[in-house]
Amino acid sequence: MLFGAPQYLVSGLTVGATYGLTALGFTMIYNTTGIINFAQGEFVMLGGMLSVVLLKAGLPLPLAILAAVLCSALAGCLMERAVIRPVGRAAPVNLVIITIGVSILVRGVVMLIWGKDTFALPAFSGAKPLRFLEASVQPQSLWVLAITLLVLGALKLFFSRTIHGKAMLACACERKAAALMGISVERMAMFSFGMSGFLGAVGGAILTPITLTSYDVGVMLGLKGFAACILGGLGNPFGAAAGGLILGVLESFGAGFISSAYKDAFAFIVLLLLLFVKPTGLFGGPKSDRV
Amino acid sequence: MAVSARSLQLAVFAGLLAAAPLALPNDYYINILILCCFNALIVMGLNLLMGYAGQVSLGHAAFFGLAAYTTAFVTATAGLPVWAGVPAGIAVSALVAWLIAVPTLKLQGNYLAMATLGFGIIVSIVFNEAVNITGGPSGFVGIPRLKLLGYAFTSDTAYYYLAAGVLWLATLVSRRIIDSRTGRALRAIHVSEQAAQAMGVDIARHKRFVFVLSAVYAGVAGTLYAHHLTFVAPSSFGFNFSVQLITMVVLGGMASLWGAVAGAFFLTSLPEFLRVFEEMDILIYGAMLVACMMFMPSGLVGGLGKLAAWLKRKLTANPTPGQKPGQKPGLKADSRG
Amino acid sequence: MAELLPELLAVRGVSVRFGGVQALTEVDLTARAGDITSVIGPNGAGKTTLLGVINGAVTPLGGSVRLDGADLSGRPIFERAAAGVVRTFQNLEIFSNMTVLENVMTGGHLHAGYTLLDSLLRTPRFRREEKRLAALCREKLDFVGLAHKAHLPAADLPYGEQRLLEIARAIAVEPKLLLLDEPAAGMNNKETQQLGAIIRRIRGELSIGVVLVEHDMELVMDVSDRITVLNFGRILAEGTPREIQDNPEVVAAYLGED
Amino acid sequence: MLRILGLVAAAVLWAAQGFAADPIKIGAVVSVSGPASFLGEPEKNTLEMVKEEINAKGGLLGRPVELVLYDDESDVNKAVLAAEKLLKKDGVCAVVGATTSGSTLAIMNKFPAAKVPLVSMSAAEKIVTPVNPFVFKVAPSDRHAAGRILKHVKAQGYKNIAILSVSDGFGQAGREVLKELVPAQGFTLVADEVFGPKDTDMTAQLTKIADAKPDAIICWGTNPGPAVVARNRAQLGMKTPLYMSHGVASKKFIELAGESAEGLMLPAGHLIVASQLPDSQPQKALLMAYTAGYQERFKSPVSTFGGHGWDSLKLLAKAIETAKSDKPEDIRDALEKVAAFPGIGGVFTFTPTDHNGLDENAFEMVVIQGGDWKILQ
Prior knowledge:
By secondary structure, chain B is mostly helical.
């Protein structure tokens, strides 16, 4: 009856790490600016696509990924400076539409330059699967999980030890007070967009060897990333990562034990039921959000 | 005085709708007008929900689809007449909305967005997978054209006038609801649920009412759509369409009936105008979304209103020294969304 | 005090906890019809929480809330409004998307005697009732001195007038009991004096019982019939303004705070 | 030199004058953008290439061909609008399209009313069964592809079959045909799993399939899903033979699936194995020429889908020439009489009861070996 459970778990965690990394990007921006960035999935796409393109252009893989990630971080900063900062404190729903517009734009540019094809990236350390309990694990999955954990750990250090991190948390708590204390809220906003560009792109680059990439992978990832955020409780980075993993595992178990046709529906039904019972997500505080 | 101004607006709108086909260079564009009417209908309902009552829904395409598939099933599969299918479609859409309204509308802000989004996705998965009923991803073929009271709406022009008539009626209904105690209660909920309740407004009931009402609007549009196209496929009712609907609401102008109409007509016909740019059209579409929201935060209607006011000021008085030349009127506008 | 007026509001033994914080402990409060009853106390004493308990926004752990003898415990906010309890808000909760008059007409929500169908068909009843309601609400605006601003967007009013608008909106509900949460906050002296007069007229002309939570001691001492002092969620003292002013514990609590 | 230029100019002018007279307008509804663009783009490229080729040879009936092409953005609504526009605004004499089955099904009922022939480039059988007098299709049916696979499966002596299909129109059509043919031909269907078009991990489905212990797996989908399936199968170390559909018969699939594509089998049109065909094969010369022409011009590999564009426009051209008329109804009648016409997708023979004109011979079973296709004997 439980045949395949270890495999489902491994698959779910791998896919879930994708969602989790996207969700972390959402959280980053949401915490400093209160914006839900619907272009978050595009950062993930940029990470993957740029890595592919740079690799094809002749850069060695690690360098290609590094450059791709930096470019995406830059794209994040640019986005904040160009379209978010000028509108100031607009209504949240307007900002959401702006981010939707940006995501259409980014997708369009990538499509026009590099086409509509799907691309693959070589795995970091071979494709020979490892056996683990009853499951077969791709080495790349281990890379993904390890890097996700590394990123989480680094974020924790960043927020608790560095002045920038603390300043960002201050913006998250009370923007006005942060501004009064001499923190440049605008700089922090730009920084958060850069960071989430960075995080998204890291996710895109390390996942592409498993999942392949194309100009339009961002839509679905953005959607699932947002769901992961909500599942974990908006604003809580740990919740976002956990939400992603849970969502991935739910889908995988849904496909394995219920019906592969309804696996996404299954995951969303669980999410809805959870919200009905706990309206601010698994690890969300009692305080509802600012929107 | 306000009342008469509103009647005048409605009369002008009726006139515009009636005259629109005459201004078209050929028959093809009437189909776009019909689609504009359908979308305007959904967007108007969504605007009552979002713009007036302040409750976001990222799953409204589902109600549109539920009604379309229901009438398709009732008329094509079960073989019942169209006059049975249309109310059945609207009723299913309303019923589903009524069922999910209570648990869903307790949620706030982004959590509400997620719940409605999830609902929309679940429904679209069902459209895709319940192949025996819906025909699956390749669609539902063979839906009869609309025939009411013995009149078959075979020509597109006739169908347009039907759609436009329904849209006008929906506008009237919306107007009358907004200008009543119910409308005031909804607007109150948008700003402060605490205060609305303290005034004796049963917010759960009102939220459910407006949610069901918006589902009815979407349902009407869905049934008309199914009998116009005579074909429905799940891809028309997915997440993308829900997002487009929201975009129409916001771009047109939150809490404005004319905004809903303007947003729907503008965004539905925009791709037609962008075709000249060929592959670049998607870039221009995205850029326009961003630009509109940056420079007209209160939407097309608000933006035009501000522009008109600004022009009037320019024309009636000499430019005041304080006014910088070339300053965009919309830039300073704040949205009260 | 010649004779005791009938009891309008009776709060008995109410306790509230927020997470680990005990916000109210066994609090009693009595307000009599035709009285202005004030609740004072240092910041964080639980005054706003107490108002919340009365109007239903806060669910207490125990205790009861009665209005005119009818138990309100467990009933939702809007039903309590219908039963006659209405409040204003410390942080202004004006409906900023409406005109001044529409704000007040929302207060008259329960008194618009027509159905949804009436409004859809614009029946004579709808027209008659809307007209009546509008006239009534203008009276309320006139009562607080805002009649001339009826058609302005509510958000355009200055701060002090928004406070008055909240009061007009609340009395449009035609309550038996009006809970005012720091109505003078942000008002200058002159405005506060006008407010005092309005509060007295609410009691005098409209025969509405008032529970006033306020920091402005001058106003409180000026208008109140009875005063209850809260400190750390418990009742410290209760009595007439004179009694309270002379109470050494109260003085100590206030001095201790500032 | 100058004189030569002058001559050329005169010739161009003359040609332009002759052409300017009265072009033959052919419409096209193609998914150039959106999820189906991987089909639509080569179709559009090919249509334009064929049009120019025809015009370079003097057009049809001495008149130039004008191609009015609209992008339906892979959206049913847009396809309907585009078809309306072609019929009502542009007044075309025939239409090529649509790219996807969904769009074709949505627009095809407009054509008998307008009495204009439609040549679809999509696969669904519903397009031509029952026969709609004005609707033809050039893409081979899923039934033929599935039949070809099952023939091979039977020859290997396999009994238990698992199917894994993508949850879009293409996958659904294949799944329906397989669910009908698998039991009908005496096999046992032991698993029927589905994956989403954007899914990135199919190990759960494959694990479940492995549990059902099939002799062979048939995967029905278009890129990139099947490539992920192939990779996941290798990852899980599954040895069960995996058949793919003709939906992945492009080099892109081998590129995406990498080493895990080795040994996979699929039914493919003749195009991708043209060089391996015997010279006597009627399509061979044509296929080689198309491949060379397309690759030189668009710098990208040919695909079967582009071939649909070639077939539909060339078939229309042939019908117009035989009918000696560009009246839509004459074109329709002539189309129905086309026989033994070698195209990219196969050799077409239309009849009043067969508006697809292809059979199982449109496909070859191929196996992927050393990163390339090899015809299975």
